[in-house]
User: Fold these one by one.
Assistant:
Number 1:
Amino acid sequence: PLTIGVLALQGAFEAHARVLQNLGATPKLVRTPEQLEGLDGLIMPGGESTTMLKSLERGGFFEALAAFVAEKPTFGTCAGAILLATDVAHSTQKCLGALDISVERNAYGRQNESAILSSETSMPGAPLEMVFIRAPRISRVGPGVETLAKRGDDPVLVRSGSLLAATFHPELSGDERVHRLFLDMVEDSQRSYR
Ligand code: GLN
């Protein structure tokens, strides 16, 4: 089975580990840069990206993570998507610059702070249920970034190469398609190395 790390500094990591287990992968909680070694892929969960950054700025963790995402499939959800981006607004903060998207943090306003919405998706099957919690908005996608689902006009699920990002929390809806898509991406990346 695939061994998938779940960044476990803060936030919604437990629920991701459960979904991975349901899908037959082996989740490994990642709390140190050393624990990135030997993983087939990584999920960076939702939570508070500023808090995660604080932990990442110790012991070379940020640099180790940047090296990992440049090489191995990585899926960022919400705060994790903010970490993957090339630029972050409201407020500006450091990011990995791995996925060519611009994001605005907490962009959906007070009344829409949290919402459960449904959207058509280019993934097979029924519309996708999406749980948004103080979600960022993807305000720009670079060339080569594919949009797989939208909220109104805003991309909310995007993919580029072996990187996947969602501004919602797929681990909190019963729909496992997004995690399955990520595991397929991990398998594909291993085939192309052989
Ligand atoms: N508002 C959070 C941030 O800016 C993200 C929210 C989430 O991950 N659910 O990091």
Number 2:
Amino acid sequence: MAKVHLEDIKRKFNNVTAIEDISFEIPDGEFWVLVGPSGCGKSTILRTIAGLESATSGKLFIGDTLVNNVPARQRDVAMVFQNYALYPHMTVAQNIAFGLEMRKVDSKIIQERVANVARSLALEHLLDRKPKQLSGGQQQRVALGRAIAREPQVFLLDEPLSNLDAQLRDDTRAELKQLHQELGITTIYVTHDQVEAMTLADQIVVLNRGRIQQIGAPQSVYARPANQMVATFLGSPPMNILPAIYNDHTFDVSGQSLAIPAEMTQKVHLRQGYSFDLGIRPEHITINTDSELNEQNAAILSVDVKLVEPLGRETLIRAGLPGSTIVLNVQVGGNVHPHPGDRLYLQLDLNQLFVFDPKTGDRIL
Ligand code: ATP
């Protein structure tokens, strides 16, 4: 195991800056997830740590060693890709053992390690099969097993579950978490899937356009996003964003007034007459029977139901503000079933309301 430390890493491809200002330190044994939309630079960071790309500038340490000029195979990291290429002519056991044999590890130790890895990944009954006799999920477990068998200091995973179907993905995700709890290898995991990020990570690093937006424990990043990009990227359905104009403790949202308690507006300076973006998550909205408030620190918006999606445990509603193009996602209990065209009164929990600067996207409140 080893800590991984990036100091002001930048990578340019000709004139394109893929990543810049990338600095973080992953303590020994932690599981960190790099997450962000396509093209934000996740894979470039991972490949730089693996030694498959070189940094244009900045310093990269694995353990206490500066590894900028250390070739990939000497970095003692193992990487698993989305397209896990197994050797088709070898059995599962031979695939898992391959890296160890290349390193001329003693054959007894190889046997032991293959047996251990097969046990932790539930591959024991498949050891004599060839890859084409395995399901996609089993093949992916073999690819993980091959990486784990090397007992690397650092484990790098680039979207390892994205080729699996939904059920297998959930199962393998849980297995990965379990495996990390058992082995404690420092792990860096790249995904654009926010569920994977939220469930697997000790810490997540949210990236956008080659730069870090926020680093933190998943729950705290979800609860206190640094900016609008982070706020809308984490959470499904995503946070609602409502353009509004502020005046005298009140936001005007497309002609409807949201009165804000004085103690909230005192915390920050909101300029009179200026535009802001309000953020509220779908789960922080409830449905009121009429336009009267029955909670403190809440505000009401009238909306018209456009779409209802019953999911069993919960119901997702898409509802539009009358006379505007603004549509809200609302997540309520599975026993609530409005109809398209119904007028609803949405109660917004103002303790959960965010205010963003529409120019910079930074969170103000
Ligand atoms: P995805 O989720 O789609 O895999 P990503 O977040 O992993 O995306 P990267 O693959 O790291 O993103 O790419 C970051 C940026 O760098 C993109 O704009 C990409 O086009 C660019 N880039 C990556 N590799 C190269 C390359 N070899 N040559 C030129 N540009 C590249």
